[in-house]
Amino acid sequence: MSGLGAGLAADVAADVAADVAAVVTIARKDLLQEVRSRAVTVATLFFSAVTLVMMAFAMGQDAELLRRSAPGVLWVALAFAGVITAAQSYQSDLEEGAFDQLLLYPVPRASVFLGKLLANWLFLLALGLLMTPVTLVLYGAPAGPSAWLLPVTLMLGTLGFAVVATFYAALTANLQAREALLPVLMFPVVVPVLLGAVRSSEALIGLQNTVLAGGWLQLLAAFDLVYFVACTAVFHLVVEE
Amino acid sequence: MSQRHEAPARPRWLRMLGLSTLILFGVGAYLALAVSPPDVNQGQLIRMMYAHVSVAWVSFVAVIVTALYGMAFLWRGRPVDDARAVANAEIATFFAALTLVSGMTYSKPTLNTWWTWDAKLTLTALMFALLVGYFVVRGLIDDPTRRGRVSAVIGVIVAVSLPFNYLAAAWFRTLHPTLSVAVTGVTMAPIMLVVLLFNVGVAALVYLTFVSERVRIARLEHARLETRERREGDTPGEVVRV
Question: Between residues 39 and 98 of chain B, which touch chain A (CB distance below 8 Å)?
Answer without folding.
Answer: 74
